Request: fold
Amino acid sequence: MKQINFSHPGGFPLEQETLERLQTAYRAELFGALKAHLSIETDKNYIVAPATTATKGWAIIQQDENNLNNSPRALPETVGVLYPIQKGAPTGFLKTTRKGTNLVYGTGVSQTAYFDYEAEYISPEDYANRPDTSHNDNLLTVYYYDLRPFKIVKDLKTIELIIQTIEENIISIKTNIATIENNIDAVEADIKNYLPLNGSKAMKGDLNLDIYKLSKLDTNEAAVANVRAIDFRLGSASKRGLRHQADPLGRALADNSDQTKTNLTLNYASDWENTTIGGKVYLDNLSASNATGSLLVIDNANQVTKSNTLLQSLIDRIKILEEKPATAVPIGMIALWGKTAPFPEGWEEYLPLRGRMPVGLDISQPEFNTMQGTGGAKNKLLTIDEIPAHTHTYDKAIKGRGYQTRSDDNPLSTNTSVTSGSAGGGQAFSILNPYRIVQFIEYTGRPADTTAPVNAPNLRVADVGRTFVALEWTPSYDERGITNYMIYKDNVLAATVGNVTSYAIDGLSRSRTYNFYVVATDAARNLGPTSNPVSAKTNLL
Reply:
């Protein structure tokens, strides 16, 4: 669709193309006729005639006239634009294009002379991937539309068919009026005592049965009322609404059957926190036998079943336990020597005394340290035979025997280089404690720890020197506690440290790259996950 712009000064260039454009200048008149005869509203968009693969269509779209004409006016002025739709199957999405064509006027200035208006269907993918903003300038204006809110303007033939159908229905309605009037009295009489019997009318508001029974809903007035509903909802703002104010109704019964099962669920999706059943409860899926010795259990599918053998099995196991002799569990701690982990079930190492050594009570040797002393060391006085062989000078030998001067011992001797004879035999001696202890264990009753630490340490290089690399890491977790971290350098264990989160590896070569990772262990020596590897190069200077 073309529209000529005659507003420019300098006349209008007359050429063959201009004459052709003038022949299509009926756009405004055509739109005006459509607007008048089809009751087009100025704030709505219309599909006057949808396009097909064989014919073009028409659309009326409200657009900002200022944007369309590139006007400097600040206030928008929306007008209806008549767009021809190119042939094609409707997709539900439309792209409109207005192209401006410039011509040289008598003043020698190139100005926009006319505009071409076109529209075409686009795919949902093209609409979804449309630009964030529509293209809009004097020579090209592009918009994208979702056609769902568009109104459809029916053609005259369709309108005639609708009018004919309405006229035929008027005759039928007049015929039924007499029947309806005859039934009004009967309906008014029934409505006082009954709700809609066959569900032909929708009920509004809250259901208040007052003095009437639920059986009044039964169209056959049978002894059992029939209520057809997938979900039977109950509740009120003063009950369930206390916790669910947004929705005070809960599904008391829900029919969640499908093609494979028929299930009726009470308190569906736990709409109430608790379900209480008063009175006796009968489970038809269980045997009606009243024999003793049965036990109700829940299977893997949460189904309640009755077992006649499980109870007897439990009784037999209890009898076996009762017949076993009672065993005393020691209270306190035991020191082990010559044996390492693993320990018997229920026993664990007492970590505060790891590396300590107890000492026996020996009144003649009070020099023993207490149990908490590091290493359990013992002081030892060496005898002459146990010290290494050695000699002394004459003066030292004399003074060592209590003499004050040489003359007191040998006044006639003037030789000051005389030495004493050799003393000491270098004999072996023992400084061992009375016990050679490896570990202390205590009874906890807990099963053996087979669970490894979790959370791999997050390792990083904290500092680098010429001969050292300082490492830091986040701690691992173990339910019974982390005891050590093992630090590996180039896949070889370099150090084992306690429950710390930093350590410096020393004694490295200068200007060399080393690779490190850390593994946590617990008291049972279970290994946790390996940390991330890190690399560091020592400094040269």
